[in-house]
Amino acid sequence: KTITFWNFLKENTIEIPIIQRDYAQGRLGKENLRKNFLADLKNALDSNETMKLDFVYGSIEKDYLNPLDGQQRLTTLWLLHWYVALRAGELNNDNCAILKKFTYETRISSREFCEKLCEPENFEKFKGNDIVIVGFITKQTWFYSAWKQDPTIQSMLRMLGGTKIADKRGEDIIDGIEESFQKTNEDGFKSYWKKLTQKEVIVFYHLPMKDFGLSDDLYIKMNARGKQLTSFENFKADLIGYVTKQGEAEWESLLNAENGIPIKLDTDWTDIFWKNKSQDSKIDEIYFAFINRYFLQELICAKKEDNTDLYSANELEENNSTFNYLYGNKSNDSQLQYSGLDKYLFTKETEEKSIPLSFFKSFRNLLNNFYKSAKNCNLNNYFPEWVDSKFEFIPKYDEAGNITTLGQRERVVFLAVCRYFEKGDFDETSFRQWMRAVWNIVENSGIETIPALIGAMRLIDELSEGADDIYNFLSNSHPQVKSNFAKDQVAEEIAKAKQILNGKTRPDGKTWEEIIVEAEKYAFFKGAIRFLFTKEVIGDDWCDFDTKWVNAQKYFDEEGVKDGKENDKLYKSNAILMKSLLANCDDFEHKIKKHFEFSNDYVRWRRILIADHWRRAVDTIMSKEVTTETTKDYVNNTKDVFIKNIIDDGLMDYVCNNMSGAWIRSTYHGYHAIWISGYPASQVVLNPILSKLQFEGIISYRNTEGRDSTIPNCRYYRCFYKNVDFKYKFNDKYYYFNWWGTPNKTELDVYLTEDNWNDYKKRPNPTSDKGTDEDIYYCFRVTEDMENNTSLFIEGLKELIEQSQKS
Fold first, then answer.
1. Do 206 and 56 touch, CB atoms closer than 8 A?
2. How many Cα atoms occupy the beta-carbon half-sphere of 66 within 13 Å?
3. 3-state helix, strand, coil in the chain (%, to 5)
């Protein structure tokens, strides 16, 4: 039955047994607990809505209650009644006689302190105009200084006066009774006193246990651990309390005694996590992490009434304290410490932030369905074969006791799994198909940043409407998918779903789903295979699929490009696949935007095969098998001189066979710089002046190890940041060609050097070190005339020597 604290105290004496722990709600570190509990108590007094607290039970002998559970709440209620009586002018002998029926057996000092508070004459001089209650009490002659060492008295004073500390945002935490009621006048306190003593505003459930003798052994067992509650225990209590406070019929169903959230949290759902318990049989951390991850995804996917996103990505990342708390430190959420339910209030259905009813219903469906149909399944067995993630839907403990975390991709997959089970029970076929589509999108959408994570989650949330039959959903969805995230990969999944459901029978006896899955797991493709059925628009070329699929298996393996069996099909060694691709690129200057990677490795080719600006070139080399002869034809037909230079000079053979890769970074007039992997130390450069002179044998590069070097059979040279140290054949002197600038302004200078490549030869007694380089060093500026006439360039080299010798 329910009863008010005042009515209970009138009928019984409450004595906290000596074996119970000290009053803990007033401890340091419990600020948020006090803040939330006191706010709820005051709200009940203000709103006249009944606030129901949990059970209080223990042995009752001769009208004495020794509480086994409920000590903390009872002490706080007693302090609230005492303080309201004091401020309402009701701290008289009659009321104090009732208040004295609450006492502590734990320490003599605690018991005597409670008795002194209930002597009206001790407070005749108290004037409650300011927040001074603790200062008043501790300055009285009846208050012994030794009492400050009693942890229960310390906690009681802290509950009365608060801690006067601020939260992380700099806002004061109202965690004391006096602070909570500081704006209340005497009439307000009289009204509160009347409600506390005459109405059922704040009640608790009392379970009479008169016939159940509680021995000291039971108290010891109940309190022996001496540990504070874990973050999860506190969180779970507050979460259930939140549901309980709502009071409406729809919310009441969540509290059903047989299948409501409270009983499920401690029974069926606990079984789900118990399978992954730690070596010392703990599950609180993994249970807490799981629910935190669910809260994070619901915050990200929360909608307004018009079905638009509640928060933008920037609002979540930069300003939302709930997101930053749940996301953890750099996505590591394994160390979250619970400090109050306010961090979990994420949506605005009213003027106040709240947790919507839909959240609890979806969460209940998720765990009920998972428990019923999949708790013994290894979900990872239904992922695509190429997936290499260590994803754990239910967190686990490692040997050190740490819990598994989720990376960016895995958070999105976690959401996808949740959405599937929210809809219904586990089915192997539909779950496998859903996970295939999800992982294809996740793997091929670049989820490295928080905005990308949010975009991916919102896309999967949208697609999850069809999680139980994703092929039909995708086939009928275009163009209804509103999200713009990973739109090319989504378009690919739509095209594949349509082909699986509607494609003609294959002559090889395989279904379209079988052949598509086979291609997705091949080599480095990992779910992105639109180049096998696309010419211009994704999905427009299923007729050539089989030809392209055969060629793909000839060209590629896990490492990237491989060689064919015949000498005229050396796709890798002679780089004919890359040469053919580049030769078929139309409008290189603008389409590739002067930044094109070329290599035989899988990283570059994976980007090339799915890039929209390479579709025509990729279609060409996939539709007809590449050979040495076809490559020559492609090169001869290209009108791009730059491409011809790269291919004809043998540069591509050099880069593809001697390095991990390179990318064309920039061109300045006739000068081309190609950056080699390992920037900034390595580049190859086409310098029209030096290349011509080097081919004619008039100059040679120093060939410094690791810096400048000649590339065999190639007009390009390898150097450091486009600059090169070279020797003029006819005077055996070294010069340094210095090239710097921007696309709109390039400066080319040649310096006479000493023995060291970067030690420019200085002129004797220069007028000022602040002059131009021509004043300080033996050097000259390369002009356009020199570029068109190399003899002028040579004259410049000779002139520097003559100047040097004359000086």
1. yes
2. 18
3. 50, 15, 35
Confidence at residue 276, expressed as pLDDT on a 0 to 100 scale: 95
Burial-class residue 456 by CB neighbours within 10 Å (0-12, 13-18, 19+).
buried
Q: Which residues pair with 674 in a beta bridge?
A: 664, 684
Please name the amino acid found at residue 406.
L
Which amino acid, one-letter code, is at 731?
N
Give the DSSP H/E element, type plus range, for residue 204.
strand 202-207
C-alpha to C-alpha distances, 96 to 101, 115, 668, nearest whole angstrom: 9, 9, 93
Q: Decide if 498 contacts 504 (C-beta within 8 A).
A: no
pLDDT tens digits for range 222-249: 555 445 567 888 899 889 889 988 878 8
Chain-wide mean pLDDT for the chain?
A: 87
End-to-end CA distance of the chain: 111
H/E stretch holding 700 reads: strand 699-701
The two three-digit tokens of residue 610, written as one number? 């799915």
Closest of 500, 465, 359, 368 to residue 426, by C-alpha: 368
Q: What is the pTM of this model?
A: 0.70
Q: Three-class SS string for 413-481?
A: HHHHHHHHHHHCCCCHHHHHHHHHHHHHHHHCCCCCCHHHHHHHHHHHHHHHHHHHHHHHHHHCCCCCC
DSSP character string of 18-76: TTSPPP-TTSTT-HHHHHHHHHHHHHHHHH---EEEEEEEEEEETTEEEEEE-HHHHHH
- Each residue of 387-411: pLDDT tens digit? 999 999 999 999 999 999 999 999 9
More confident residue, 645 or 276: 276
Residues 6+ positions from 258 with CB-CB distance below 8 Å? none
566 close to 626: Cβ distance less than 8 angstroms: no
Q: What is the DSSP letter of 614?
A: G
- What pLDDT is recorded for position 217? 54
* Residues 512 and 485: beta-carbon distance below 8 Å: no
Where are the alpha helices (H) located in 275-312, listed in sequence order? 284-301
The pLDDT of residue 220 is above 70: no
**Location of structure tokens 């190890």:** 705
Token pair recorded at residue 622: 């996939």
| Residue 489, H or E segment | helix 487-502
Q: What six digits make up the tokens of 275?
A: 């399978």
**Rounded to whole angstroms, how far apart are CA atoms 431 and 785?**
70
Sign of the alpha-carbon torsion through 622, 627, 630, 636: positive
**Percentage of residues in the chain with pLDDT exceeding 70?**
88
Peptide bond into 680 cis (omega under 30): yes
Per the rule left: phi > 0, alpha: psi between -120 and 50, beta: everything else, 606 is: alpha
Q: Vertex 178, ends 176 and 179: CA angle to 5°?
A: 65
pLDDT digits (tens, 9 = 90+) for 432-449: 999 999 999 999 999 999
